Amino acid sequence: MKFGVITFPGTCDDTDAQLAVGRVGEAVPLWHQDRDLQGVDAVIVPGGFSYGDYLRAGAIARFAPVMSSVIEFANAGGFVLGICNGFQILCEAGLLPGALLPNTSLRFVFRQVNVEVSDPNTPFTRNCPPRLSLPVKHMSGRYYSPEPVQVVLRYAAGENPNGSQDDIAGVINGAGNVLGLMPHPEHAVDALTGSADGLTIFESIRAAVGDRVATGTGEGQ
Amino acid sequence: MKDGELTVHARVLVRPKAGILDPQGQAIERALPALGFDGARNVRVGRLIELELEDTGQLEQMCKQLLTNPLVEDYEIVEQP
Fold this sequence. Notes:
The complex is a heterodimer. Chain A is α/β, with parallel strands linked by helices. Chain A has a single domain, classed as Rossmann fold (3-Layer(aba) Sandwich), CATH 3.40.50.880. Helix content of chain A is 20%, strand content 27%. In chain B, 26% of the residues lie in helices and 30% in strands. Chain B has one domain: Phosphoribosylformylglycinamidine synthase subunit PurS (Mth169, Chain: A, 2-Layer Sandwich). Chains A and B meet through loops of A and helix 1 of B.
């Protein structure tokens, strides 16, 4: 299967995302000015500092040409995974509820955290163990939503790195095909760097796409 | 702009919505007493955006779509001659 990996000016985790998805499928680089998603089966919006994060994290990236295609793709049921800055972009674009505010500490946090999978029945977590060890590295990771949301990942008790509401680390949209998370699964795909738990998220997506192909359902792009 | 056309100077004041934790405001509130300034409460830190416009017809839309995130921020438009 083909994973599209978007690069905006200022994205810095696209290379790791391409390497990570390359372990379970084929990586297709997508540029922020592309409108053609090249027939990919899933889209990864990786982390970094898109457009310098000027104004607010993700505020300007949501208007990039590629994002109109990603919004169409998501509305048609395509799988979209937003990591860190990608999560911020998906919230700004309205594909996910809520917003990510500056960490309560006002500091950039960079550490390994344990994350509980609170919903193992999503296309992104079906192959995951109950707990994942993943790195976080961000300045604005304090998730906030005035409305109830579908939480998929939570920081383990006492490990919330940013003051996020209800220890939320990752949320999914109502249709169940768009996930955003602050921790970085793409940096945790090899035991050599401390954890390979992140790989299970990409394996989950591959399995979910495989099921769609087998049953002939899907977003048809 | 041609000579004689009016330019509107506008300011957009952006604030964190009531009820949203503002750690910057809290840090300032804690720092003031250390300098001997007592009695400051509910310190909130926002953003000031100044614009020059030919007209302000689209300013509300600009605020909603880009200048602020209406989910977490309130804004106030102040027009100046």
